[in-house]
Each structure stands twice: as C-alpha cells, then as structure tokens.
Amino acid sequence: MNILVIGSGGREHALVWKISMSPLVDKIFVAPGNGGMADLAECVPLNETDHDGVVKFCRDKNIGLVVVGPEAPLVAGLVDRLEKENIPAFGPSAYAAQLEGSKGFTKDICAKYNIPTAAYGRFSDAASAKKFVREKGTPIVIKADGLAAGKGVIIAENEPQAFTAIDDILGGQFGDAGTELVVEEFLVGEEASFFALCDGDNILPLATAQDHKRVGEGDTGLNTGGMGAYSPAPVMTDEMTARTINEIILPTVRGMKQEGHPFKGVFFAGLMITDKGPELIEYNVRFGDPECQVLMMRLKSDIVPALMACAQGNVDKIEMIWHDQPALSVVMATKGYPESYDKHTEIKNLESVAQGQSTYIFHAGTKCEEGRIFAVGGRVLNITAMGASVEIAQGKAYTALDQIDWPEGFCRRDIGWRAVKREQLSGPK
Ligand code: AMP
Ligand code: GLY
C-alpha cells in the first residue's frame, strides 16, 4: 500500500519513521515534509488546502491511506472530502474536529455528556464576560474560542489582567479565533496527556505523555508549541488512566455519536489531575508534537493497521504492544523562538549522531539543500531517546544533542525534570 502523510513537523517525521517499518507499506509520500525525511519518504509539494489537488494526487499515486498530521487541514474538512472520494483517511471530520477547533463547542459537549472539566461560560461581549469574572473571582482562565496556535489561553491572576485579556481577545488579537471566548475556572493539579485512537464507536487506548510548553528552564517564560516531552507520564497511574477512559474519553465517543458526528482519529486529551481526579482541559484531534515522537519510539507494534482501523472500524480488535521503557524528546529551536529568529542557518555534524530504534533525531523546521541541512523554522530538531529510566533516556538524548554543531540553536537542559525528580525520590530500581 502507498501512504500519504500530510504535514511537515517532527510529529510527521515520527509518523513517517514508524509507518516506514510496516511490512504493509510500499511507498510513503509526505506533503510537504521537511529536510530530514528523504531516506524514508518522497517529499511532494502538495498544498493541503487544495483538496482537488490532494484527491488527484491520491488517485495518480494509488494512495491507500492518507494520514493527516496537523489540525488545520482537519478543521478545514480534508478528511470529509477524502471520505467522499472513497479514499481512506486517518483523522476526524471537520465537524468532529471542532473538539479542537472550538473550545466553546468542547465545553458544551462536556456539559451535555457530564464530562469533568472546569466550570465555564461562553461569551461574545466583553461586559458579560467581565461580569462572570467578577462573580467567579481570580485566578481565572480566559481562552479565545478558535485555533490560536497555542497562544489563545491567558491565565489571569487578578481582575485587571482578566479584563485586559477579554478586551484583547474580543478586540481582535487572535483574529476570527477570538470573536468568541470561554472564561473558565482555574484548575489546580498536575497536567498530563492521554492518547486514544477511535473509529467512531470503539477506542484503542495508546499511551500517556507530559510535555514542557514553556520556553525556559523550570517551566518559565513564554508558551511554545512544546520544548520537549516524555512518555509515560508518571502521574497517570492505572487508576487515573482507567478513570480518564471511563469518565472522559468514552462519554465523548458516545456523545459525538449521539450528535450524529462520530469521532474518528486520535483523541489527544489534555488533562489536569486534580484532587478529585482527571479533568479535561482541552482536546486536540491529532497527535501532539513532540508527544508523537516519544509515542512512536515506544510503540513496538505496526501502526498502519491501527490507523487503517480508525478509518474503517474495529479499532478495538487491534492490539498495540509498547516498550515498557520511557522515551524522552528534547526540542532544539532557533535562538529567539517563540519570538523572532533567523530563518536560514546551517546545522552541521548531524551525521555523527548514531541513530537507531532507541535514539533518533526527528526533523521539524529543516530544509535540505544539496546535502546540507538548514534550520528554516522555530522548532527545528527533536532529539529523541528511550532508556531504562527517564533519567537514562534524558542522558542519551542530551549526549546525542551535544554532538550537533548548530550555534544558532538552543534547547532546554531540563526536559523531564519532574519525572527524574520522582525517580530520584523513589530510589534506584
Ligand atoms: P490549552 O491550550 O487549553 O491546553 O491551555 C494551555 C495551557 O493553559 C494548559 O496546558 C494549562 O497549563 C493551562 N490551562 C488551560 N486551562 C486551564 C485551567 N482551566 N486551569 C488551569 N490551567 C489551565
Ligand atoms: N505539544 C502540544 C501540542 O502538540 O499541541
């Protein structure tokens, strides 16, 4: 079978890497891909927003499965179109993708189907939003309704901050994503992510992860798309995982079916583990980046039958086998990210890093020019490693990273710190 992967990040490189190990696969195409994938897939300059073009490409190349990596093409209805053309596609319909595309939509689903989440209100005028803030008190969380590249969430410590956030969002700071907003209660606890595949009726639980959203060490500074991640998340005990499945994921599956729009694809549930148990912070409807990188490294089984089953049903009949060992991924970004940064700097010495099943460099914002690799984006490389403990995986990742010669790049040196501290407190294994 030929497979087309849509996207260009480290997540897509990890998906391509894993898919390439499947005996079911003849050829992988990736649109548009990046500078690190050429040995595994053919990068093609297809525009994901040109649905006619994608359909034509699938017909010409006899594509048996399209795997959509990022959220934007899902929200824009690429999977709906492919399904109409009888081309199997991994990912939800545009309607179901509102679970990520509209925070208000998700909160209403939670309310209707009794899914634990922070108490909230939806507003499109500033006066009512501010009245709600006055009633609820601070700290409080203000969120632009739509997709805002991870930047549309403001945790307001006091009323003036909350009011400024409300005025900024409704005043157009995030464009159309902020014509409406959600104001919600501030949850206290530890965050974790849970991933599960779904075919509309059945789920296949995958694994847990934790990421580091802030740019600076000690989880400080500006929010980013993610500076690193590890899997599993120690806070997700078997009990918390079972509760997440029963109290959050399955009611969502039933709810979306009842709404007439069953969810197919991957649930990426952002959770707060509070003293009452797991509460939903948000859904994403695609794999996390860099969470996908650590998940793919830990996955022993062939991923292709599972992705196909999401499109075609019977995902519950698939068994996934995982490495018990944790995996950890460190993001190298261009200095200046997440603000302004150089868009063309050379990365050297990548070839000196020994790569294999338990150490791998996934590329994100890179470009290959005549055999030389250039950084052309914010998040650029994901140095990913697996080991007997988070600390060992962390050591392997940083050892590999330190061989890379890229003066314009930087990383956090403390990825996994919370899990490492837990390991140290619980003593040697
Ligand atoms: P989101 O884009 O919804 O994941 O929000 C980004 C980050 O804001 C989350 O990862 C949390 O750290 C934080 N956050 C969002 N909602 C809440 C909440 N209700 N209570 C506490 N923190 C939150
Ligand atoms: N790492 C967070 C995300 O992919 O949304």
Molecular structure report:
- The structure is a single chain.
- The chain is α+β, with helices and mostly antiparallel strands and 429 residues long.
- The chain folds into four domains: 2-93, Rossmann fold, CATH 3.40.50.20; 125-179, 2-Layer Sandwich (Dna Ligase, domain 1), CATH 3.30.1490; 190-317, ATP-grasp fold, B domain (D-amino Acid Aminotransferase, Chain A, domain 1), CATH 3.30.470.20; 327-426, Glycinamide Ribonucleotide Synthetase, Chain A, domain 4, CATH 3.90.600.10.
- It has 13 helices and 23 strands.
- The protein has helices at residues 10-19, 51-60, 71-75, 78-84, 98-101, 103-112, 126-136, 159-170, 238-258, 291-298, 304-312, 390-401, 417-426, and strands at 2-7, 27-32, 42-43, 63-68, 89-90, 120-123, 140-144, 153-156, 181-185, 190-199, 203-211, 214-216, 220-223, 228-231, 264-274, 277-284, 327-334, 345-347, 359-363, 366-369, 372-375, 379-386, 409-410.
- The strands form five sheets. Strands 10, 11, 14, 15, 16, 17, 19, 22 and 23 form a nine-stranded antiparallel β-sheet that branches.
- A hairpin with a 3-residue loop joins strand 10 and strand 11 (203-211).
- Helix 1 (10-19) packs parallel to helix 10 and helix 7 runs antiparallel to helix 8.
- The longest helix is centred in the middle third of the chain and has 21 residues, at 238-258.
- It is globular.
- The protein starts with a strand and ends with a helix.
- The structure holds adenosine monophosphate and glycine.
- Glycine is lined by residues 211, 225-226, 284, 288-289, 291.
